[in-house]
Amino acid sequence: MIKRLLDIIAALSGLIILSPFFILLALAIVIDSRGGVFYRQIRVGQNNKDFGLFKFRSMQSGADKKGLLTVGGRDSRITRVGYFIRKYKLDELPQLLNVVLGDMSLVGPRPEVRKYVELYNAEQKRVLDAKPGITDYASIEYFNENELLAQSSKPEETYINEVMPAKLKLNLKYIGEQSLLTDVKIIYRTIRKIF
User: Which of 34, 162, 167, 176 is the most buried (most CB within 10 A)?
Assistant: First the structure.
């Protein structure tokens, strides 16, 4: 209950404080390429329920039809502005709205798309017991995930067989250590990683 209250206060404060910055980002996205400012992708949340995750659009419209994974700087679907906002994780900022709506928390396992959730084993499915978050241990550890996948000749296989299991292990670690202090540490480490 306390976590939910703090989530709402922090997310609303973030949305208000960052609103001028959101407007600038929105203008840059619109000027740079055709399509909407926001991108909404269906992800799997707590208790295995789907929800719409908000992001600033960083790719050409309809890019997800060509694959769900993005692979480093070589991914031609990423726009010029998109490359910048992805590098500094600015595309994730609209998820503060998901936090206010109750779909997500500031800290928790990153929500995955259904295609990959269907590959989880029974132990890995325990991550779905927790509310997903904007950041977590895996987000910090795999901050440059796109670049890592760019080094692979078969990025999706590398993601499924190596990256995803490692991230889920970190998600389960978070669930085992979940506390307000852990959340504060993860938020601090995330901010430090970005800057």
Answer: 167
Of the candidates 128, 106, 126, the one whose C-alpha atom is nearest the C-alpha of residue 185 is 106
d(CA 45, CA 172): 15
- What kind and span of H or E run contains 61? none
Query: What span, in angstroms and rounded, lies between the C-alpha atoms of 133 and 83?
Result: 23
- N- to C-terminal Cα separation, the chain: 31
The rounded distance, in Å, linking the Cα atoms of 139 and 182 is 14
Phi, psi of 54 (to 5 degrees): -90, 140
pLDDT digits (tens, 9 = 90+) for 158-187: 999 999 999 999 999 999 999 999 999 999
d(CA 64, CA 53): 14
Distances (CA, A) of 137 to 98, 151, 167, 170, 174: 20, 22, 8, 6, 7
Mention every residue, 6+ apart, whose C-beta is less than 8 A from residue 84: 90
d(CA 110, CA 101): 16
